């Protein structure tokens, strides 16, 4: 074998080996970075409708009534509906209008001490008869009211319903929105004055001692009180459509005169409420 052939053979062998090694080399591939999509911020904008329950404590200030409105106890549980609309103003500030109606159905009655017709600090005979006649209250068993007969007056007050229309300003942090609220509060109150007249219980039986002469409602008035309300609370979006609410509310319904302006009621309440609403 000559030198030229040997060189040629060596070159071919080296080239073949190099190609084989190149085939065994693994070239790493570049992997594209994963794309992370941020969840969109929750939108509070929209209409909602919900139901609420809660507890109410109340305060009545005594007016001109001698029976003492300050003794009325109308505290209790309440329930009702609420609705409204929120608008996102940007930077987490939410503006909303909210209105609600609640029902408590609580009533309380105050009775006066036993008084005597024509007695000291008591109504005279003509006044008692006039009250009974105006209310068309019949006398029992043909009896007549006489001086010295016993009588008891009572006042019953009942809250039939209450509501409010408010502006809310919220400060949203994604699905949590604390807020403050204020607006107009209104309630409907029923007032009843009753009168019961009996013969003096210390009279003998033959003189009808203790027998009922007349009994009935002298006045029955239902009036609407209008005032203001202030409160604060927090809304929490459980889902995109389900909103939970908890709030405190103070309401002052102002003053209203009852029973031909012979008595004045001033009504204030403190409420704590929870609710759940559907956002459309």
UniProtKB/TrEMBL annotation:
Compartment(s): Cell outer membrane
Keyword Signal: yes
Example of a GO cellular component annotation carried by this entry: cell outer membrane
Residues covered by the Outer membrane protein beta-barrel domain: 15-280
Signal peptide (residue range): 1-22
Statement: the UniProt record of this protein carries the keyword Signal: yes
Entry keyword set: Cell outer membrane, Membrane, Signal
Chief location category: membrane
Domain of life: Bacteria
InterPro entries with a match to the protein in the record: Beta-barrel_OMP (IPR027385), OMP-like (IPR051692), OMP/PagP_B-barrel (IPR011250)
Record-stated family: Belongs to the Omp25/RopB family.
Designated name of the protein: Outer membrane protein beta-barrel domain-containing protein
Record organism: Bartonella elizabethae F9251 = ATCC 49927
């Amino acid at each position: 074998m000559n030198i030229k052939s040997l060189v040629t053979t060596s070159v071919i062998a080296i080239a073949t080996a190099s190609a084989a090694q190149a085939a065994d080399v693994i070239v790493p591939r570049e992997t594209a970075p994963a794309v992370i999509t941020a969840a969109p911020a929750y939108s509070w904008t929209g209409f909602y409708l919900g139901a609420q329950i809660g507890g109410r404590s109340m305060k009545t200030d005594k007016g001109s009534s001698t029976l003492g409105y300050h003794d009325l106890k109308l505290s209790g549980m309440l329930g009702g509906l609420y609705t409204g609309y929120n608008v996102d103003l940007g930077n987490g500030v939410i503006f909303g209008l909210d209105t609600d109606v609640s029902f408590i159905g609580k009533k309380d009655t105050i009775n006066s001490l036993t008084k005597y017709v024509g007695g000291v600090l008591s109504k005279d005979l003509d006044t008692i008869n006039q009250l009974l006649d105006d209310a068309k209250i019949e006398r029992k068993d043909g009896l007549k009211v006489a001086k010295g007969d016993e009588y008891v007056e009572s006042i019953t007050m009942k809250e039939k319903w209450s509501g409010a229309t408010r502006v809310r300003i919220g400060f949203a942090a994604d699905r949590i929105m604390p807020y403050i609220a204020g607006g107009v509060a209104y309630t409907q109150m029923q007032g009843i004055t009753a009168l019961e007249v009996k013969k003096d219980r210390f009279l003998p039986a033959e003189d009808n001692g203790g027998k009922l002469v007349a009994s009935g409602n002298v006045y029955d008035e239902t009036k609407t009180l209008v005032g203001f309300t202030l409160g604060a609370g927090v809304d929490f979006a459980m889902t995109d459509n389900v909103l939970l609410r908890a709030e405190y509310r103070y309401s002052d319904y102002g003053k209203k005169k009852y029973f031909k302006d012979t008595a004045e009621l001033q009504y204030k309440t403190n409420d704590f409420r929870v609710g759940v609403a559907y956002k459309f």
